[in-house]
Amino acid sequence: MKIPIFEEILLSEMTAEKLRIIISDSRIGKVPCYLNLTNLKKEEIDTLILNLEQITLEHNLHPLFPYPLYIVSPIQLKSIFPSVRSVKDLPEHYFKKVKRPNNKELQLLNKLSLKVDKIKNLELYKIINEFRDSTVSQRNLYNETKELYFLENLHSKLFETKTKGK
């Protein structure tokens, strides 16, 4: 496996069929990628994002795991993809220079490629929804126990002042 560095996905045409071919030929999910949409109009970006979301769902790709697919756009987007305003805002740790890895690094990269394959085979959308559901219940439990703790402290302080006053 290669060292995971950014790969720019170049869009020559924005039709749905060409986009399907580009997505299937790209290495989305295997390496971090980004689409630079800075010179497109808002309407073009919106239609492209909708098509891109459909195609990634069809190909069973997740926009965040194992490696993210960033959208570079000056316009604030509401989509499943992480977006940034310029290429300079992308995470810097994926822009490292490529050098020949030593033996230990090669072993780690081979293990990493196995982990990436395992992650791609998971039902990521289902797992993330389960995490969101459990976070809601955990947050509710935390809020209730926090209130209970406050009331117990208040009771103990009031009880101490009554006993000291007698």
Description:
There is one protein chain. By secondary structure, the chain is α/β, with parallel strands linked by helices. The protein has four helices and four strands. It has a four-stranded parallel beta sheet, with no helix packed on it. Strand 1 (7-9), helix 1 (16-25) and strand 2 form a beta-alpha-beta unit. The mean pLDDT is 86.
Portion in strands = 5-15%
Mean pLDDT: 86
Strand order of the largest sheet: 1-2-3-4
Task: Tell me the total number of β-strands.
Answer: 4
User: What structural class is derived from the secondary structure elements?
Assistant: alpha/beta
The radius of gyration computed from the alpha-carbon positions, rounded to a whole number of angstroms, is: 24 Å
Largest sheet: 4 strands, parallel
What is the chain-wise order of helices and strands?
A: EHEHEEHH
Poorly predicted segments: none
- Contiguous helical run count: 4
Portion in helices: 40-55%
Ends distance: 76 Å
Structural shape: elongated
For this structure, the quaternary state is single chain
Write a brief structural summary.
Helix content is 53%, strand content 8%.
Break the fold down into its secondary structure elements and pairings.
Elements: E1 7-9, H1 16-25, E2 33-36, H2 42-58, E3 69-72, E4 83-84, H3 103-121, H4 124-165
Keywords:
alpha/beta; 166 residues; four-stranded parallel β-sheet
